[in-house]
Write a structure and sequence with these properties.
A hairpin with a 5-residue loop joins strand 16 and strand 17. The chain is built from 2 helices and 31 strands. The protein has 4 domains: 153 residues, Galactose-binding domain-like (Jelly Rolls, Sandwich), CATH 2.60.120; 93 residues, Sandwich (Immunoglobulin-like); 133 residues, Jelly Rolls (Sandwich), CATH 2.60.120; 68 residues, Type 1 dockerin domain (Orthogonal Bundle). The chain has 561 residues and is mostly beta strands. It starts with 17 loop residues before the first strand and ends in a 13-residue tail after the last helix.
C-alpha cells in the first residue's frame, strides 16, 4: 500500500547495543533517504559483561581508568539534571577527585575490574543511569544481583523495566544505599516476573541520584542474571541477635521452598544501609522449611542486618531481621578507621567504626559546618560531626551488651547557638524503650561536658544515643562531639561495693541495706546491687552475690557476675 514495509536484519553477535537510525533509500527514484533517528534498538540475549572485564585489555586491574568516549562493553548510560560530571560509566574507581577511600580491589569473589559512576554535582535530584536491555520469556521470574560500594551522599537504586529504558514500565525497584559516607562491597538484588503480554524485553537499570554534598562515586561489580523456577520464602530466623565477638549459630532459618538439590544455598547478612556483608558458613538444608548456618560476627558493625537466601537463581530477604550488638562501646574519640589527615582541616567522609546514624548526610569526622571552636577538643585528634542543610533531628548511636549495674554515657559537645544536644540510654536497640535522657547545657565556643546514666535492663542490651536538633539556619546546621565514653559506674565485680578487690562481709552489709524483696523500692545508691536490671534487689541477686563471694583479702573473680 506504499505506507509500510518489512525487512530482515542480520544482527551480528558482536553488534553494539543501543539505538540505531532507520534509513530507507530508493536509489532508482533519485530521492534522498528517509530516516527515523532512534527508531530501532539492539538488545542483548541476556545480561552481559556484568563483571566489567570486557574491556580488560585497555586498563590494568585495580587501576582507575576512563574509556572516554566509549562505555564498558554492552552497557549504556545517560544523565539527568545538573550532574556536574559526564555520566560515562568507567572502570575501577574513576572519579573527579579523591573523595574517599577506594573500595577493596580485587572485588571479593571476582577480578580487578568494576564499574563506577561518579559526579561532582551538588545539585540534589541530579542522577545518572547505566543499563542493559535483554530478551526474556513471559511468566518467568528474573533476578539481577550484584556487589556494590561507594562514597559521598547519594541514593543507589536498582530497577527492572518491562520494555526499553526510554519507554519501559517499571516492574520492580530496590534501594541499595540511601545514606552518606563510604561503604565497602555489599551484595544486593532486584527481582521481577516478566509479564504475560509484555514486550519480551526487560531492562535492568543501575541508578545513582544525588542527595546533597559534592563529590560522590558509586561502584558495582559481578552483576548476574538468573531465572528463578522454584521461588523461596524466608519467614523467620532464630536466634535473631548476636554479639560481634564470635559465631552466631542460626538454629532455625525458617521459610518454604528450601532445597540443596542444585547446590547448597548461599545465606548472607547485609547491614541495613549498606557497608557490611557477612556470608554464612556450615549451611545445611534440614528440610524444605528449615536451614541452619553460622555467621562469624567478629568485629562486625553493630546494628540491624537484612538476611538473604540465594538458591538456584531465586532470592528472598527478611529485612532488618538480625541485630548485631557490640561486645563493648568503641571509638568514642572517633579515631577509627585510621586516617592521617590532620584534625580540624577538612571533613573525613565515611561512617566512623562502630557507629550508626540516621542523619541524611551521615555521621562524619572533622566536619566544618560549622567547625567547632576551639579545635581540637581537650580529647585531641579527630572528632565526630553531623550537619544538614535544613532543620532536622539527627542521631548517632551504638548498641552494646551490658551486665548488671549502673552505666553512664558521657562526653564533650560543641554546637552553635540554636542547636540542642540530648543524650539518651535505651533498652535494646535504637527503637527500644528509653531508660534515661539528659540535655547537655551547651555554650558557644566551648566544649561542654554532658552525661546520662541508667541501670542495665534485664535484656542485657543498651543503646547509647547522641542526638542533636538542628535549626537549618546558618550557622546552626550542625555540631560536634568527642571523647565519648560508656562505662559502668560499679566496681568489677558489681558486689565489690567498697572497691577493695574482694567480696566479703563488708560488701554483704552494704548488700543487705539495698535488699528490697519482690515488692520494695530500690534505694538511691543501690543500683550496683541490682545485678539483673529488674530494679529490685531480691534472692536472685543474693544468689549472684554468693557466687562472687571471695572472702577478705582474696581477689574476687571479675567475671563472676
Amino acid at each position: 500500500d506504499g505506507l509500510s514495509l518489512t525487512a530482515t536484519f542480520a544482527i551480528a553477535a558482536d553488534a553494539p547495543v543501543g539505538l540505531y537510525t532507520d534509513k530507507v533509500a530508493r536509489p532508482e527514484a533519485y530521492c534522498d533517504p528517509a530516516t527515523a533517528s532512534g527508531g530501532f534498538e539492539v538488545v542483548l540475549p541476556g545480561l552481559s559483561n556484568g563483571n566489567f572485564n570486557g574491556d580488560a585489555s585497555s586498563i590494568a586491574e585495580c587501576t582507575p581508568g576512563t574509556l572516554s568516549p566509549n562505555l564498558p562493553k554492552d552497557w549504556q548510560a545517560s544523565e539527568a539534571g545538573t550532574w556536574g560530571y559526564d555520566s560515562r560509566l568507567n572502570l575501577n574507581g574513576y572519579r573527579p577527585t579523591p573523595i574517599d577511600t577506594l573500595p577493596t580491589c580485587p572485588v571479593p569473589g571476582t577480578d580487578g575490574y568494576y564499574g563506577t559512576i561518579a559526579s561532582t554535582s551538588n545539585n540534589p535530584g541530579a542522577q545518572a543511569q547505566a543499563w542493559q536491555s535483554f530478551s526474556v520469556t513471559a511468566g518467568q521470574t528474573y533476578v539481577v544481583s550484584g556487589k556494590f560500594a561507594g562514597s559521598g551522599d547519594c541514593t543507589v537504586t536498582l530497577r527492572l523495566l518491562d520494555g526499553l529504558r526510554r519507554n519501559g514500565t517499571e516492574l520492580a525497584s530496590k534501594v541499595v544505599r540511601d545514606t552518606a559516607g563510604f561503604f565497602d562491597w555489599t551484595t544486593d538484588f532486584v527481582t521481577a516476573e516478566a509479564p504475560v503480554g509484555g514486550t519480551g524485553v526487560m531492562t535492568f537499570v543501575w541508578e545513582v541520584a544525588r542527595n546533597s554534598g559534592n563529590d560522590n562515586a558509586s561502584h558495582a561489580d559481578k552483576f548476574e542474571l538468573t531465572v528463578c523456577s522454584s521461588p523461596i520464602d524466608v519467614t523467620g530466623v532464630t536466634p535473631s541477635l548476636g554479639v560481634n565477638n564470635g559465631i552466631l549459630s542460626i538454629t532455625d532459618l525458617a521459610g518454604t521452598g528450601f532445597s540443596d538439590a542444585a547446590g547448597t544455598p548461599t545465606v548472607l547478612l547485609a547491614k541495613v544501609g549498606g557497608g557490611t556483608t557477612i556470608t554464612a558458613s556450615n549451611v545445611v538444608v534440614v528440610s524444605g522449611t528449615q536451614i541452619t548456618c553460622d555467621f562469624d560476627l567478629t568485629g562486625a558493625a553493630s546494628g540491624r542486618y537484612d538476611l538473604t537466601v540465594f538458591q538456584d537463581g531465586c532470592i528472598d530477604t527478611l529485612p532488618s531481621s538480625v541485630m548485631v550488638v557490640g561486645e563493648s562501646f568503641v571509638n568514642g574519640s572517633f579515631e577509627l578507621p585510621e586516617n592521617t589527615q590532620d584534625p580540624c582541616t577538612g571533613q573525613i567522609g565515611g561512617l566512623p567504626t562502630g557507629w550508626n546514624t540516621d542523619a541524611p548526610s551521615g555521621l562524619n569526622r572533622d566536619g566544618q559546618a560549622p567547625p567547632p571552636n576551639p579545635c581540637p577538643s581537650s580529647d585531641g585528634g579527630h572528632y565526630g560531626s553531623m550537619s544538614e542543610g535544613s532543620a532536622a533531628t539527627v542521631r548517632a548511636w551504638q548498641t552494646v551488651q551490658v551486665s548488671g549495674g549502673n552505666y553512664e554515657f558521657s562526653g564533650l559537645f560543641n554546637v552553635p547557638v540554636g542547636v540542642t544536644v540530648t543524650l539518651r540510654l535505651l533498652d535494646g536497640d535504637e527503637s527500644g524503650t528509653q531508660l534515661a535522657e539528659s540535655s547537655v547545657p551547651v555554650e558557644v565556643d566551648t566544649w561542654t561536658e554532658g552525661s546520662v546514666s541508667a541501670n542495665a535492663p534485664t535484656s542485657g542490651i543498651m543503646t547509647v544515643v547522641w542526638e542533636m536538633q538542628l535549626t537549618g539556619t546558618e550557622p546552626a546546621v550542625g555540631g560536634s562531639a568527642d571523647g565519648l565514653k560508656f562505662e559502668s559506674t560499679c566496681h568489677n565485680p558489681v558486689f565489690d561495693f567498697d572497691g577493695d578487690g574482694d567480696v566479703d562481709q563488708a560488701d554483704f552489709a552494704a548488700f543487705q541495706v539495698c535488699y528490697t524483696g519482690a515488692t520494695g523500692t530500690l534505694p538511691a545508691g543501690c543500683e550496683c546491687a541490682d545485678s539483673n536490671g529488674d530494679k529490685l534487689v531480691t534472692q536472685s541477686d543474693a544468689t549472684d552475690f554468693e557466687t562472687c563471694a571471695s572472702g577478705p583479702g582474696i581477689p574476687a573473680n571479675p567475671d563472676c557476675d
